[in-house]
Amino acid sequence: MKDNYSSLTTHHSPLFMRRPERLAEVLRAEVTEIVGYELEDPRLQAVTVTDVRVSENLREAKVFVVVHGNDKEIKEALKALQNAATFVRQQVALNLDLRHAPLINFVRDTVEENATRVQELLKEIHLTDS
What is residue 126's predicted lDDT score, i.e. its pLDDT? Predict the structure, then answer.
């Protein structure tokens, strides 16, 4: 007889996600709110939270961000985020009612930039082939 529950364990709904993944989803939404609406630093206006990865032991979280601007503006925004990391962690713990919120480390997400660069290179190749 076939087990009716076996398909449920491979389902990709939030209910069946591993704990670090579930926490990462909730953190992404919460950190997006905090960075977007609670931090009043003008250097953070061009920041978008793209992803969060939580360590297996739930003690650390890498928050990936895209920052629009030149190199100086990007560095300033990342510096402002690192300075605000403790506040963000405290707000996350308070808003999500967590006894131990993970340490938050903001990391520049370069996937979008790399994709744009690859597209530019492909266009150049296409133009030279024509």
Answer: 77
Task: For the chain, give every domain's residue range.
Answer: 6-129
Rounded Cα distance between 102 and 23, Å, is 10
Residue 108's nearest CA partner among 22, 40, 76 is: 76
Q: 64 Cβ partners below 8 Å, 6+ apart?
A: 49, 50, 51, 52, 53, 107, 108, 109
Across the range 33-41, mean pLDDT stands at 94
Three-class SS state of 63: strand
Tell me the average pLDDT across 82-91. Answer: 96
The arrangement of secondary structure in 6-129, i.e. its CATH architecture, is 2-Layer Sandwich (3.30)
- Whole-model pTM? 0.75
* Burial profile 79-110: b = 16 or more Cβ within 10 angstroms, e = fewer: ebbeebbeebbebbeeeeebeebbebebeebe
Residue 44 has pLDDT above 90, yes or no: yes
